[in-house]
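in:
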């Protein structure tokens, strides 16, 4: 694709993420306590997920009718030019009244992540990246941290019911034994963006879906960090383990998490 085609998609991803973020914020502020469902064990769903996804799909369809779209809630197609979207990442936080969630939009061309945009409407933060063009937060360049030692590192360890609890606990134990501080904030997408911005030093999860992580992966790489080969095998359609870190901690975090 021409540079112009990529730039158009980058600008569109940023604008749609902001618009979807505004809608998400309005829906969050007027929601009633307890108005959520569980679509599986510890897997939350709100009406807002569907509403926000519909808006994003409509906007992409209007602007790029030849591209395919896949959304977490409504499904779709993964074509050679594919938009992969998560209307609300951090749905459990949204549902329980914790203002830490975002919209995630990625554009993947021929199996390469080309554009990513994440909006956390509660903090007015727009994280964005394009391949070879750097990563930004509200327009200013992002850079990963310089932390070199696990004993001064902060590592986010994402969790879901898609992998055995014992494996998660074992990973937590290994990372803590190396001396790192750990956290789990409930949005894989923001977890990755925080690595890109140097707010944390690494993010790891034993299984994550593509809609949760593609935009964030591009941000970490464009901000000077490192990620594992998430798209290997069926990563795009079925998910994979994810590991992202600053450059200096790469070897230590691969060893501690066993992902690499
Ligand atoms: C989940 C969040 C969570 C991560 C899970 C995801 P959802 O997405 O990103 O932090 O650990 O793997 O499924 O349910 O909030 O859209
Ligand atoms: Ca998600």
């Amino acid at each position: 694709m021409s540079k112009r085609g990529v730039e158009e998609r980058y600008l569109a991803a940023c604008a749609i993420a902001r618009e979807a973020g505004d809608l998400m914020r309005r829906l969050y502020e007027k929601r009633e306590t307890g108005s959520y469902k569980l679509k599986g064990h510890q897997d939350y769903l709100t009406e807002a997920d569907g509403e926000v996804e519909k808006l994003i799909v409509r906007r992409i369809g209007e602007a790029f009718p030849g591209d395919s779209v896949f959304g977490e809630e409504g499904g779709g197609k993964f074509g050679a030019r594919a938009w992969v979207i998560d209307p609300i990442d951090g749905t459990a936080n949204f549902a329980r009244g914790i203002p830490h969630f975002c919209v995630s939009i990625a554009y993947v061309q021929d199996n390469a992540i080309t554009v990513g945009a994440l909006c956390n409407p509660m903090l007015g933060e727009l994280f964005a990246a394009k391949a070879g063009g750097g990563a930004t937060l509200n327009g200013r360049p992002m850079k990963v941290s310089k932390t070199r030692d696990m004993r001064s590192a902060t590592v986010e360890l994402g969790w879901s019911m898609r992998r055995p609890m014992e494996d998660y606990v074992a990973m937590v134990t290994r990372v803590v034994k190396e001396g790192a501080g750990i956290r789990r904030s409930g949005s894989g997408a923001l977890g990755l963006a925080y690595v890109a911005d140097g707010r944390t030093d690494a993010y790891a999860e034993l299984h994550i879906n593509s809609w949760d992580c593609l935009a964030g992966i591009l941000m970490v790489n464009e901000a000077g960090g490192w990620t594992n080969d998430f798209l290997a095998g069926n990563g795009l359609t079925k998910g994979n383990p994810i590991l992202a870190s600053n450059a200096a901690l790469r070897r230590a975090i691969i060893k501690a998490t066993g992902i690499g």
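note: The chain has two domains: 3-141, 150-257.
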